[in-house]
From TrEMBL, chain A:
<dbReference type="Pfam" id="PF05427">
    <property type="entry name" value="FIBP"/>
</dbReference>
<dbReference type="GO" id="GO:0070527">
    <property type="term" value="P:platelet aggregation"/>
</dbReference>
<dbReference type="InterPro" id="IPR008614">
    <property type="entry name" value="FIBP"/>
</dbReference>
<protein>
    <submittedName>
        <fullName>Fibroblast growth factor (acidic) intracellular binding protein a</fullName>
    </submittedName>
</protein>
<dbReference type="GO" id="GO:0005634">
    <property type="term" value="C:nucleus"/>
</dbReference>
<dbReference type="GO" id="GO:0017134">
    <property type="term" value="F:fibroblast growth factor binding"/>
</dbReference>
UniProtKB/TrEMBL annotation, chain B:
<protein>
    <recommendedName>
        <fullName>C2 domain-containing protein 5</fullName>
    </recommendedName>
</protein>
<keyword id="KW-0472">Membrane</keyword>
<dbReference type="GO" id="GO:0010828">
    <property type="term" value="P:positive regulation of D-glucose transmembrane transport"/>
</dbReference>
<keyword id="KW-0446">Lipid-binding</keyword>
<keyword id="KW-0813">Transport</keyword>
<dbReference type="InterPro" id="IPR057815">
    <property type="entry name" value="C2CD5_C"/>
</dbReference>
<dbReference type="GO" id="GO:0031340">
    <property type="term" value="P:positive regulation of vesicle fusion"/>
</dbReference>
<dbReference type="InterPro" id="IPR035892">
    <property type="entry name" value="C2_domain_sf"/>
</dbReference>
<keyword id="KW-0968">Cytoplasmic vesicle</keyword>
């Protein structure tokens, strides 16, 4: 008594968000049925396996047919095949382009190439995200990357318009594209503690402040490439560590401001030592950014040069914040320091990145 | 030159990539009408071409305008090789030919290819300019409106109902022509699609001509079907009800009182110039003439009619004819009779009528005939097919007469074909109509407030028996109407129509289905036809038995919307009867079901029987509660009624063999038991009882019915979901017994229902309305069930409604108040007036006691072997009928439902879509909305074929996308006409042929419906029709050109 054919088609699309999620997560029909049966939602309806199976099959087929449209979400709105209410369209797209933070954390900064795609089974094994889902997420990244690569205008806005994503998701994709484009190193062990959201925030900061788009908003790749002129200018910050006067002055001003405010009880000597180290570290990062290789190591440098020393001294986040704020501001009072604008543009980003990256 | 057709190709989008090298397409378009073809320029290298062509003008006859579709072909230009077709769009321009309907067709159409499905979309503008007075061109019938809706369309008033129109056209099936061997599947499919478009256009035109001859201007309840007869050809046939419709000015109620015309000259005028029956029913001899041909030897005939609760034989030739002369009681009736008799067939395809139209309902009449399709095809002589149907219709007519009725309502016809055998079926409900409407009364559904002074109250009048008590066509239990106490009613009533809007019911309705599967030997030709026709009466009988049992089990006493389908396959026959059960308060309460064992000595059996009995009683009690069947005055009736209360004293007989044709009268009743007795004498019976009990009732919050609306539910909200579901089961075991097969088939149907409930659970509380099942046996060992229905939400609790919607809901709460009031009234009258009513009633009673006794048996006689061999056909016909009583108008009909509160859920959710939303429903209305305009009939036929079945996800994947594509194309056409919904949508055919070994599959789907523009009840202006905006834009654009 084999069921040879079994279809159910509604004039308006029939889908349950639960099944959609299972489909997106890469469950096979049978596994999805198992999950649904175990889910207990069905108990109240006294549904038998065959009923659930038939329903799951119908929905899986619908999703498969929709998938083609989801690859270019703008088509979804004016296609005629399925009648999908707008809020459903939004759900379909948003969920389709949603990703697992654990997965994206693995591919962040990697080249979105065939090679990486081959490694997906390893990533799948490592993260516990099903291979099918990994593929979908990876292909989404690639697709978005490809589309926005050639577009002018603000990155986030482009992504939002072409893929009809929510602001939040569009920003995340912008971060992914940005990371992939600049190939930031994020996989090192020292960086493992950072979540995708930490890094996405940093990417947002970089995009908003350090790219070409921060100054000119009609260039190709404006939000993807760092502003070369700016990076060049950063070299000038070297004076802060090379010029002895400036260094001392800067140190003094800061200490004046900080006196008695830090909750951590350091010896004054210790703080002075740290100061030299940290200041040198931050300025060094700045001056090296003209090098593509060093750009890639930007995050690891931040961790090694700043976050780790602070952490070893058991700074609280609040202290760290206070410290950095005063460190930045005190440079303004220096009479002979001429690169205030560059310094602000640099430190603004560094500050917020470190705030985000510094976990207590 | 009566017409100029203009078409403009604007643009395309989402085209497929046709040139692999560039990933682009060089598209151009061919526009063809009749034999004229125009081409656009090639729009190079684009998947979203902007042709913006000139207006292509076709100067054509209006005859062609009606027959031909506009054919648009999108092609990919190829310099070196032949141009590749991307796909086609067929546009039926018929809607542009009525003055009131759409004035332009404009919108995005899916480009359809029979092999690849939808491949992008094309934006097209079509207009028609008509010249001259159309009526002078008798070959055309431009201007006659067609409606699939089986009631008077909203916003119209029927000035005259002229009656039945039918026509059929025959052609060779391109798939079976020699050329098919050398052409591609695509070419063959396209030839077929085009031919069917042409044929249905021609058919519509011919029907239109008949309507014009009759003096009408519209066809309501238009039902068009295809018979794919294989080698012997392709038949497209249609039936409908001709009317003269008048448009109601919106807003103003219809206050034209119908009592203007004297009843005596009812109906003379319209039918006079209509066709006079060549087969006046007196001369039955003509009946034989169509079958004198060579085929006659191949046919045999057998006829009988079945009536539930009794099986009787009514002679086909003349036996029943004598009976009907007598029973006409009133002058009124006689007049109607005369009026109607002037018509060839007093049939109406309508299923719901304005109050007062339907006077009495006799019962279901049906006829079937098994035919062998002629091997030699002769397209110039469709007379054979005409004759076959003529025969069947005569049969129906005579059955109706036997029931003392002069008309048949809710009439429909269908066929089932397997190889060369074809079963033709027709069924309807015998009825007596109010003659007033036959000529120029009002038949408007709009004016629900209209009430007529009628001898019998409208809430129960239709239940009163139309036939003569002394001369009953079959034995039945008669009682005085529980409502008015003046007229007799049967104990059960079966009908094919919708529940009249003013009928009094108790509780809610319920979907009841009887399923039957019977093996038959494979056979050929005449022997095969004989075997099938021998089985038919048993199947009919058994289906009715099942229906009756299930009805009792739910404590209900009437069936509406009864539809019995018998499908023939190579090795089996499938029977499926669906109906909606209701408790009519005018009819007596149904008795319970009692189980009786044949061998009382056996303790085990006794115990077993007791168990079953208990389960049955429990089920009945549970059902009563679920469907809220609480007849107001049950005990009182039983105790206090002075009318000799004929409780159902009957039993059901399981074995057919006992009902031999020798017995003229077989009283099987024990005469003692009150309840309906089921005898458990063999395993079959046990099985049956089990199957009876295994029918799961719908889960909480769900109701289902196959009629337009659910009796007992009024507060519809506007969320709805129309769906189509198809399931095919392969029988793995070749040697199944009838019993096992029945189980398989029953489970298939039950599981389908369960699936629906599960899938639609988010809509609870919800009702599945208009559940239409159609079964087929596409191949040996395959059973196919296709279902189309609509799920509609309703408000369980009126208090939950927003205060803003109070004014709307007020109407229904008032209705319920009224109901309660009348319920009380009824109780009163039954106790107080019971004595007097029996005295007052003009019907003498005692004299009929004997009749009653005689009738008290359920199975009176059955003569199955009544062959009339000289007749060249095999027929079975069946009739049912029964009884009822009622209270006041607790109704579900459209006027009420429209006034319902609605949730904004669905409409809101579509707000921002760039594609205009088109709602689809098999019902004739959309809850919470008002239909302001009918923009044209939709009648589409599609073929889809694949040679890469596996790659498309198997048969399920293939059909899933095809059904979705069909919906998409229907929606696109409706939107292009400026409509925003399809009502009375139905999928009439879904023929699936698969060959998984060759990785191939082909499917044909035929759908129809009425495109409409609706507005939400609260809105002042037209909503949701973006196409309308497009419409105005385009007309201005047109002005510029």
């Amino acid at each position: 008594m084999a069921v040879e054919l079994d279809v159910f088609v509604g004039n308006t699309i029939i889908m349950s968000e639960e099944v959609y999620q299972l489909w997106l997560d890469g469950y096979t029909v049978n596994d999805a049925v198992k999950v649904r049966m175990e889910g207990g939602v069905l108990d109240e309806f006294d549904a038998k396996v065959d009923v659930v199976l038939s329903d799951t099959m119908d929905q899986y087929r619908t999703f498969q047919m929709c998938e083609r449209l989801l690859h270019s979400p703008t088509k979804l709105a004016n296609q005629l095949l399925f009648q999908i209410p707008p809020h459903r369209q939004a759900t379909l797209i948003e969920r389709y382009y949603a990703f697992d933070d654990v997965f994206v954390r693995e591919v962040l900064g990697k080249k979105l190439s065939k090679g990486t795609k081959k490694d997906l089974d390893d990533i799948s094994a490592k993260t516990g995200v099903m291979l099918k889902s990994c593929r979908r997420q990876f292909d989404n990244f690639k697709r978005v990357f490809k589309v926005v690569e050639e577009l002018k205008g603000p990155l986030v806005e482009n992504i939002r318009q072409h893929f009809l994503l929510s602001d939040k998701l569009a920003r995340d994709y912008a971060a992914i594209v940005f990371f992939a484009n600049n190939r930031f190193e994020t996989g090192k062990r020292k960086l493992q503690y950072l979540t995708f959201q930490d890094l996405a925030f940093c990417a947002g900061q970089l995009i908003n402040n350090w790219t070409v788009g921060a100054v000119d908003n009609m260039v190709e790749d404006m939000d993807v490439d760092l502003d070369k002129d700016f990076l060049q200018e950063l070299k000038e910050l070297k004076v802060l560590i090379t010029d002895k006067d400036l260094l001392d002055q800067h140190k003094r001003y800061k200490h004046l401001c900080l006196d008695g405010k830090l909750s951590t009880l350091f010896g004054k000597q210790r703080l002075l030592m740290r100061w030299r180290l940290i200041s040198r570290g931050l300025v060094n990062i700045a001056t090296k950014l003209t090098n593509t290789k060093d750009v890639r190591d930007f995050f690891i440098d931040l961790v090694e040069k700043f976050i780790e020393p602070c952490r070893s001294d058991h700074w609280t986040a609040a202290d760290m914040k206070l410290y950095l704020t005063h460190y930045t501001n005190s440079a303004h009072i220096l009479d002979t320091f001429k690169y205030q604008v560059v310094w602000d543009r640099y430190m603004g980003v560094i500050k917020s990145c470190i705030f985000k990256m510094y976990h207590d | 030159m009566p017409g100029k057709l203009k078409a403009k190709i604007v643009a395309g989008r989402h085209l497929p990539v046709m040139d692999r090298a560039s990933d682009l397409t060089d598209a151009f378009v061919e526009v063809k009408f009749g034999n004229t073809t125009f081409k656009t320029d090639v729009y190079p290298k684009s998947l979203n071409p902007q042709w913006n062509s000139e207006w292509f003008k076709f100067e054509v006859d209006d005859e062609d305008l009606q027959d031909e579709p506009l054919q648009i072909t999108v092609l990919d230009h190829d310099t070196y090789s032949a141009n590749d077709a991307i796909g086609k769009v067929y546009i039926d321009i018929d809607p542009l030919l009525y003055s009131e309907a759409a004035s332009v067709i404009s919108g995005w159409f899916p480009i359809y290819d029979t092999i690849h499905g939808i491949r992008g979309e094309i934006n097209v503008l079509v207009k028609v300019e008509l010249f001259n007075d159309l009526n002078r061109f008798r070959q055309s019938s431009c201007g006659v409106k067609f409606f699939c809706t089986t009631s008077i369309p909203k916003g119209y008033r029927a000035a005259i109902v002229h009656g039945f129109v039918e026509e059929l056209v025959v052609n060779e099936d391109p798939e079976y022509q020699w050329i098919d061997r050398i052409r591609t599947p695509r070419a063959s499919n396209e030839a077929r699609q085009r031919l069917i478009f042409l044929m249905s256009g021609e058919l519509q035109r011919k029907i239109g001509l008949k309507v014009l001859e009759m003096g009408g201007n519209a066809v309501v309840g238009y039902l068009q079907c295809f018979d794919l007869e294989g080698e012997s050809g392709l038949v497209v046939r249609a039936i409908g009800t001709a009317c003269t419709l008048e448009k109601l000015s919106s807003g103003s109620g219809t206050h034209t009182h119908p009592n203007t015309a004297p009843a005596s000259n009812a109906c003379n005028s319209p039918s006079k110039d209509g066709k006079e029956s060549p087969l006046a029913h007196g001369c039955r001899s003509t009946h034989n003439s169509p079958v004198h041909s060579a085929c006659s030897s191949q046919r045999l005939s057998q006829n009988f009619s079945v009536s539930v609760p009794t099986l009787i034989f009514t002679g086909m030739g003349s036996g029943s004819m004598g009976k009907d002369a007598g029973p006409l009681k009133t002058l009124l009736r006689q007049q109607t009779q005369t009026a109607l008799e002037q018509r060839e067939f007093p049939f109406f395809t309508l299923t719901s009528f304005p109050s007062g139209f339907l006077l009495h309902v006799g019962g279901v009449v049906s006829a079937r005939s098994v035919k062998l399709l002629d091997r030699i095809h002769n397209p110039d002589e469709p007379e054979t097919r005409d004759a076959w149907w003529e025969e069947i219709r005569q049969e129906i007519k005579s059955h109706a007469k036997a029931l003392g009725c002069h008309a048949v309502v809710g009439y429909s016809e269908s066929t089932s074909i397997c190889e060369e055998v074809c079963i033709l079926s027709a069924s309807g409900t015998a009825a007596i109509l109010n003659p007033r409407y036959m000529r120029e009364g009002c038949l408007d559904l709009g004016g629900s407030d209209q009430r007529f002074e009628d001898p019998s109250p409208s809430s129960c009048g239709f239940c009163h028996i139309p036939y003569d008590e002394l001369n009953m066509p079959f034995p039945a239990q008669l009682t005085y109407c529980f409502h008015c106490r003046r007229q007799k009613v049967p104990d059960v009533l079966f009908t094919t129509i919708d529940l009249p809007s003013d009928a009094a019911i108790a509780g809610k309705g319920c979907f009841i289905q009887a399923r039957l599967c019977r093996l038959k030997k494979k056979g050929q030709g005449e022997a095969n036809a004989t075997a099938i026709s021998n089985q038919l009466p048993f199947m009919e009988y058994e289906l009715h038995t099942q229906l009756m049992n299930k009805l009792k089990l739910r404590s209900m006493n009437a069936l509406f919307g009864l539809r019995i389908q018998i499908s023939v396959g190579e090795n089996m026959l499938l029977g499926l009867a669906s109906a909606t059960g209701v408790y009519l308060t005018a009819l007596p309460a149904p008795g319970g079901i009692q189980i009786a064992g044949k061998t009382p000595g056996d303790l085990n059996t006794e115990q077993h029987i007791l168990n079953i009995q208990k389960r049955i009683n429990d089920t009945i009690a549970k059902n009563k509660e679920f469907y809220e069947v609480n007849p107001p005055d049950l005990t009182e009736e039983v105790v206090g009624s002075p009318i000799p209360e004929p409780r159902l004293r009957s039993r059901l007989f399981r074995s057919h063999s006992e009902s031999s044709d020798e017995l003229s009268e077989l009283d099987l009743s024990h005469g003692k038991k009150d309840a309906f007795v089921l005898e458990v004498d063999d395993t079959d019976a046990v099985e049956d009882i089990h199957s009876l009990l295994t029918d799961a009732s719908p889960p909480k919050g769900f109701y289902s019915c196959n009629t337009e609306t659910m009796p007992g539910i009024y507060n519809w909200t506007s969320a709805l979901q129309m769906f189509t579901s198809v399931r095919v089961l392969r029988l793995s075991n070749a040697n199944l017994s009838n019993q096992a097969l029945n189980k398989v088939f029953t489970d298939l149907c039950e599981n389908l229902l369960k699936s629906f409930y599960f899938k639609l659970r988010s809509m609870i509380p919800c009702c599945l309305s208009h559940l239409v099942f159609s079964v087929a046996v596409p191949e040996e060992d395959l059973i196919q069930v296709a279902v189309t229905a609509v799920a509609m939400t309703f408000d369980k609790d009126q208090t939950q409604e927003k205060p803003a919607e109070k004014p709307i809901t007020k109407g229904c709460s008032e209705a319920e108040d009224q109901l309660q009031f009348s319920l009380e009234l009824c109780t009163d009258s039954s106790s107080i007036n019971s004595q007097s009513s029996s005295k007052n009633s003009g019907v003498p009673e005692s004299s009929h006691l004997s009749t009653r006794d005689r009738c008290s048996t359920w199975l009176e006689l059955l003569r199955l072997k009544a062959h009339t061999i000289r007749r060249g056909s095999v027929k079975t016909s069946r009739r049912t009928q029964s009884l009822a009583h009622s209270v006041s108008s607790l109704e579900h009909s459209s006027p009420l439902t429209e006034g319902r509160s609605r949730s904004l859920r669905s409409s809101r959710s579509f707000g921002g879509s760039s594609v205009s939303v088109v709602k689809m429903t098999p019902l004739s209305f959309l809850p919470g909305t008002r239909i302001v305009k009918y923009v044209g009939i939709i009648n589409m036929f599609f073929i889809r074929e694949t040679t890469s079945l596996r790659e498309e996800g198997g048969v399920s994947g293939f059909l899933h996308s095809f059904v979705a594509e069909v919906f998409a194309m229907v929606r696109a056409h409706v939107a292009a006409l400026g409509g925003n919904a399809v009502v009375s949508y139905s999928m009439k055919d879904c023929v699936l042929m698969e060959n998984p070994n060759k990785n191939q599959c082909q499917c044909l789907i035929n759908v129809s419906g009425d495109a409409v523009i609706y507005i939400r009840e609260t809105d002042q202006e037209v909503t949701g029709s973006t196409a309308n905006i497009g419409l105005s834009c385009t007309s201005s654009a047109d002005g510029a050109t």
